[in-house]
Amino acid sequence: MFNAIRKMFRPRPSAPLPAVPAGTRYYVIGDIHGRLDLYAALIEAIDVDDASRPESESHVILLGDLVDRGPESAGVIARTKAWQAERSVRVLAGNHEEMFLNSFKKPEILRHFLKHGGRETVLSYGLSRKQFNAMNLDELFALMPQLIPQADIDYMKDFEEMIIAGDYLFVHAGIDPAVPLDQQKRADMLWIRDRFLDHEGALDKVVVHGHTIFDKVMDCGNRIGIDTGAFRSGVLTALVLEDDQRRVLQASQIDGGPIEVFQGERA
Fold it and tell me: Which CATH number describes the domain made up of 17-93+159-264?
């Protein structure tokens, strides 16, 4: 009887922590939004960090929204292509890439794109503010295919929607908690907010996402939000995953000062 009672009150073994596959290391970068300066600093920090650690199969994942709002979207695209020539870098589609690609279809879609950060993207491809201000919407729409290289358009069309690594799922905005992973809709993965953010129960994987801005890395157990609003806060975040451990690297520029890189040992 006493043995049975002891068993009842014996501490239960804790559940294993979520992990990426053994022998791998993942650097997951939140929404860049044209902040090439922060992105370049974070690239350097990641390359240094990776080289200083035990040898591992390392991967970089960008969570989408490379473009819009910040001043150097074209430069972010070019730097990402160059980085992919040096190491494993995979890119997820964000809702701002989708708006950018759709802006070539109709002038009214272009108008919507311009209102949500697209103006800065268009300027980053070499159009001056004076030229931009002198154009009406139809003139700009006609110019877009000549202004934006087809290679960049095709490149963005190939961005992925979802990546899985061990116990983690990487996606731009989130997932529909009521739908199996293999039945998720693109619209949800790029645009969802409340139905995903308000869900408190377990998910099939720990979802690492961007899209929704937080002041700091938001670890809710079932999901981790790492969009720290680089275009307005000056803070670009990378979540580092290795085995069952998490770290954070951040490139930060506050009030126009120098860019600094910070590291935390736990997300």
Answer: 3.60.21.10
